[in-house]
């Protein structure tokens, strides 16, 4: 058997927000006019206890304010990997390595300069397949790695 909370119990800002939202629904439904909404909102803002809020809603049907509703969890920041497929991640990580390896091969083995077109071609094909997200995926991966090293 649940105990009815005392009308003298203090309310939170979240309880006041719930009451204001309920008043807005009553105004939308036509139960109260704009002037009465203003008067009642001022009383809700000044309310200290559940009893004070109950008086504001005494002559109104549901909806009524919800007390002690759990706060929603704060939104987690978007993952730096959001919107990047696993294949893009792999290619974004390998592409800079491929450029460095190609330049090293050209310098050390004397392979002609046009060999650099291989990583450039892979970049072009990647952008053609994956669109605009591809061109920044290797930049996002680099920034993420720098954050991990700094943090």
Automatic annotation (TrEMBL):
Residues 58-83 are annotated as: Disordered. Residues 9-61 form the DUF1707 domain. Keywords: Membrane, Transmembrane, Transmembrane helix. It holds the Pfam family DUF1707. The keyword Secreted does not apply. InterPro entries: DUF1707_SHOCT-like. Residues 61-76 have a biased composition (Basic and acidic residues). The keyword Lyase does not apply. PANTHER family: MEMBRANE PROTEIN (PTHR40763:SF5), MEMBRANE PROTEIN-RELATED (PTHR40763). This is DUF1707 domain-containing protein.
